[in-house]
Amino acid sequence: MGFSVGIVGKPSCGKTSFTNAACMTDFKVGSYPFTTIEANLGVTHVRTQCACRDFDVTDNPQNSICIDGIRLVPIKMIDVPGLVPGAHAGRGMGNQFLDDLRQADVLIHIVDASGALDAEGQEMDAGSHDPVEDVKFLEEEITAWTLAIVQKDWKRIVGRVRAEGAKLDELLLEKLSGLKISRGHILKAVRDTGLKAEAADNWTEEEIKEFVRTLQRIAKPIIIAANKIDRPTSEKNFKRLQETFPELLVVPVSALAEKALKDLDKKGVIRYIPGDDDFEITKADVLNEAELAQLEKIREEILKKHGGTGVQNLLNKAVFDFLDMITVYPVHDANALADGDGNVLPDVFLVPKGITAKEFAGVIHTDLMDSFIHAIDARTKMQISDKHALKDRDVICIISAKSHPTRKK
Asked: Please, what's the b/e burial string for 209-240 (b: 16 or more CB within 10 A of its CB; e: otherwise)?
C-alpha cells in the first residue's frame, strides 16, 4: 500500500461516515464541527476482476480477498480533519489538515449534496446552502497552501534558473517532494499552462498561481462525492455540481447505506459485495417490517437508481482511473499458479500502468530487481524480458539469480 486516498471536506459533511463505510471502522461520528480532530487512518479495498476466473482455478488469497471471482485489494485511506475557509492561514483545524494532506495521492472530496450545512459545518435547513461553493473553496484552500510553499523561496529559485541555468523542475522538486509531488507532475504542469520554465523569473503572480493550480490538479486530483444522495434536496444539487464542474468527476454517494449493508452482511443477514447494485437477504426472519422496508428503500432509491451506494465506485475510480493503476499477480510456480507454500494466486499488487517486469520485481523485493534474469508469463508460459510492460491481471513468475518469496517482507 504505497499510496493513499485522502478523504477531505468541510466539518460534518460525512467524511468519517464515508471512511467507516469504506474501511468498516468505528471512528467517532458527530453532527457538530471538528468531531475529527486528528487524521483517522484506515484500510479499505478496491474491487477488480480476479485472475482466478481467467484460469478457472480456486485461489487462496493471502494479501487480499476474493469473493466469487471479485478480488478486493487493500489500500490506505486518510480521513483528515474538516476544512473551513481560511484553513491555509490556520483557521479551524487547517494546519493539521494540510499536514495530513501531504500523504495523499488522490483526494475524495465529500460534499453534503443536501445543502444542509453552512461553510463552517453548522446545520441549517436542507437546501439552504449551495454545495457548489464547497467545491470552489476547497480547491482554493489547497491551491493557496501549495502557493505559499512555492512562493516562499521563489525569488531564490528563479534567480538560480536565470544565473546558473538550473532547471526549474529540479529546484521545485526539492521543495515539493514532501507533498508527494514528482518531477513528472511539475513538468506536466509547466507544459499544460504553456509557460516557459527558463523564463520563470518573468512569470506574473497570476501565472505562478495558475501553474500551482494546475500542479495541484495533476498531483492531487480531486473526485467529488455527492454524499447523502438519498435526501430530497440532493438530486438537484448533484446535477448542479455536474453542470458546474464538467472537468471533475462527481459521483452520487450514500455512505450510511454502504455502512448499513456491510454491517448486515458481516452479521450474515444479507449477502452483499461492495460495489454491487443489489443484495440478497439470507435471514429475513431476524428483520422486522421497518427494517425490511428500509432495506427495500436502499435497494430501490440508491442501489438501483444510482448503480450502487457510490462508495466502491469512487474508490475504484480514484485508484484505477486517476492513479492509473493495474493489478499484477506474482507466483513462484507458473504452472501451478502458486507460491512456495502452494497457495494459488496468493498475492496481488497494485502497480502503475506501464510498469516493466524488472520494475515489478523490485516492488516484491529489491534483491529480485537487482538479480533479475527474466520472467515467465503464466498464461503463455513464454519468457518475458526486463523491459516488457505488464498488463492488468498479468500473472508472472520472476526468475532471478537469488531466491526470494513472492510476498514482500
From this structure: bbbbbbbbbbbbbbbbbbbbbbbebbbebbeb
Decide which of 75 and 122 is more confident.
75
Q: Which domains are assigned to the chain?
A: 324-400 (3.10.20.30)
Which CB contacts under 8 angstroms, 24+ apart, belong to 33-37?
Answer: 33/82, 33/84, 33/92, 33/120, 33/121, 33/122, 34/81, 34/82, 34/92, 34/93, 34/121, 35/11, 36/79, 36/80, 36/81, 36/82, 37/81, 37/93, 37/96
Length of the chain: 409
The segment with the largest mean pLDDT, out of 31-45, 106-120, 350-364, is 350-364
* pTM of the predicted protein model: 0.86
C-alpha cell recorded at residue 288? 422486522
- Rounded to whole angstroms, the Cα distance separating 81 from 39 reads 6
- 65-93 confidence digits (pLDDT tens): 999 999 999 999 988 877 766 655 554 44
